[in-house]
């Protein structure tokens, strides 16, 4: 059964992880940065072809309100403000699938370290398939 998330409980710096496909193998990461002057929740994401951009909730959930999980920011209030500042400062940075995708971006914001487990897992899976392919070709 799918877990229900109350977006009203989000705090600036929290990460939303959304499925990018029906199978859920690839996930999209975005950072909640707070509400605008009208009370609308605002997010920053790194999107292929667009780079790091600020988006509203209706744009972020344009394919429906599907969430894999919410990862709360784990630091104190000062660290949370620094994370939100990092999120906004990166707006305009170009998307790069291998070196700076949406997961790299979210990890940079939350941990101040750009890394992507999805890229690492993809590389590992590719290597494993190559080794298996070589084994079967003999």
Automatic annotation (TrEMBL):
It comes from the Bacteria. Residues 18-118 form the LRAT domain. The chain crosses the membrane at residues 119-137. GO terms for biological process: N-acylphosphatidylethanolamine metabolic process. GO terms for molecular function: N-acyltransferase activity; phospholipase A1 activity; phospholipase A2 activity. Pfam families: LRAT. GO terms for cellular component: cytoplasm. Keywords: Acyltransferase, Hydrolase, Lipid metabolism, Membrane, Transferase, Transmembrane, Transmembrane helix. This is Lecithin retinol acyltransferase.
């Amino acid at each position: 059964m799918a877990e229900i998330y109350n977006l009203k409980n989000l705090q600036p710096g929290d990460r939303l992880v959304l499925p990018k496909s029906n199978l859920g193998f690839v996930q999209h990461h975005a950072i909640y940065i707070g509400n605008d002057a009208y009370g609308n929740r605002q997010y920053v994401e790194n999107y292929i072809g667009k780079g790091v951009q600020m988006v509203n909730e209706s744009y972020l959930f344009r394919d429906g309100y599907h969430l894999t999980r919410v990862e709360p920011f784990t630091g104190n209030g000062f660290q949370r403000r620094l994370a939100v500042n990092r999120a906004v400062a990166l707006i305009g940075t170009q998307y790069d699938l291998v070196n700076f995708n949406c997961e790299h971006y979210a990890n940079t914001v939350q941990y101040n370290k750009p890394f992507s487990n999805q890229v690492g897992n993809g590389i590992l899976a590719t290597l494993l398939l190559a080794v298996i392919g070589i084994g079967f070709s003999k």
